[in-house]
Amino acid sequence: MAKILLRVNGASRTLDADPQMPLLYALRNDLDLRGPRFGCGKGQCGACSVLLDGHVVRSCSVPMAAVADRSITTLEGLGSSAKPSVVQQAFIDEQAAQCGYCANGMVVAATALLKSNPHPSEDQIRTALAGNLCRCGTHTRIVRAVQRAASQQA
Questions:
Q1: In the predicted model, what is the mean pLDDT of the chain?
Q2: In what order do the strands lie in the sheet with 2-8?
Q3: Are residues 93 and 60 in the same domain?
Q4: What pTM did the predictor assign?
Q5: Are the beta carbons of 13 and 31 closer than 8 angstroms?
Q6: Do 61 and 94 fall into the same domain?
């Protein structure tokens, strides 16, 4: 066990944790954040996606030792139900979730995409989200949501 300083959604937190424990477990079990979800546990589905220093990572595959004193943003750090981010609101408006299990990772990935490329093409959106699996088949609505968010950014 080691004391590991985390900056999660703008707040500093120190956790006693195994340096090899996946970040996902600390976020869900120790910090009670439900945005990142356990999907495959192998970094393949995207359900556990978070932003690490602004870049999308799979929190199930990132050890705690790799995130010490770095900035982590989860879905909760992007907006709230009372004040959703532009991307979150676009997903709501386009009804871009059916079961919703993939939605959190999709929103995180779309947020990172729009930060680096404010006006992506449809192909760029599909490429950026290709690592996030959706088994319900709402891909068309997800792409429309990202396009809507891109058009509504300030």
A1: 94
A2: 11-17, 2-8, 71-73, 49-52, 55-58
A3: no
A4: 0.93
A5: yes
A6: no
